[in-house]
Design a protein that fits this description.
By secondary structure, the chain is an alpha/beta fold. Helix content is 42%, strand content 17%. The longest helix has 26 residues. It is globular.
Length: 319
Amino acid sequence: MWPIDAEFHTHGWRERLLASCEGQPPIVTAVVHPCDAVSLQSAVEAASRGLITPILVGPEAKIRAAAAAAGADISAFRLEPTLHSHAAAARGVALVRAGEAQLLMKGSLHTDELMEEVMAADTGLRTARRISHVYIMDVPRYPRMLFITDAAINIAPSLEDKRDIVQNAIDLAHVMGLERPRVAILSAVETVNSKLQSTLDAAALCKMADRGQITGGLLDGPLAFDNAISPEAAEDKGIVSPVAGRADILVAPDLVAGNILAKQLTFLAGADAAGVVVGARVPIILTSRADSEMARIASCAVAVLMVRAAQASAARSSV
């Protein structure tokens, strides 16, 4: 285990991420209902760093009031007026579907209100893949960046849902530069127990990877949290695995577990994070009022990197 007095540090991936975005054209982003100072300022700051070109979508009077409260100049930005937050969510999704925006960014509306429009069968942004959320965390006492999924979208995912959740996280890890990320499927124990569904799902997911139903990563599970991230804990339990003790991706059994894990790392372990919704037609930037400014900007940068990776892949496919 890490010593109590282990030095807190940052791994620098956010700074490298932002540096990789410098000099590149900004990505047009529909910012949905930026009607408080924090969400409006987040969009303005991302624009000032050259990451995005915002389209501000929502009630015009509220957006302008938020800009005044934030001391932000929005005169250069396109403003799409709507009557209320639900209409703003629908309009933001419509802008993406029409090709006028390549990213979607949440403002000061509830996540479920935005995701209702994103997941609408006929007018939303769904693909064949299950939509999920991934945190990329900078945990001071962990020696690498750590992906946690799903802590925001899927409440009680089925085995089929978890397959997509895992694949989404692996694909994002590839974009972030990990060629073959190590994926730990979490449960309360590291042995399969017929009375504990999360252990059965973990075992099935590992076999799905063996059969090529999940690709691009190394999977192991079930693993308890300690032996997923601590080499000493894994050794003590006699677990021999290329994943145990060195996980890059932690897959939670359900939303409650994932959400608690991510937040305790943030508020008790001093971690900072970026977060993005994946599996839709475009990445979706979800931020919280509790997020630091760096976390908000890093979330934008991750989404921008995903768009550029998709564009590069499409260009290669067309050759």
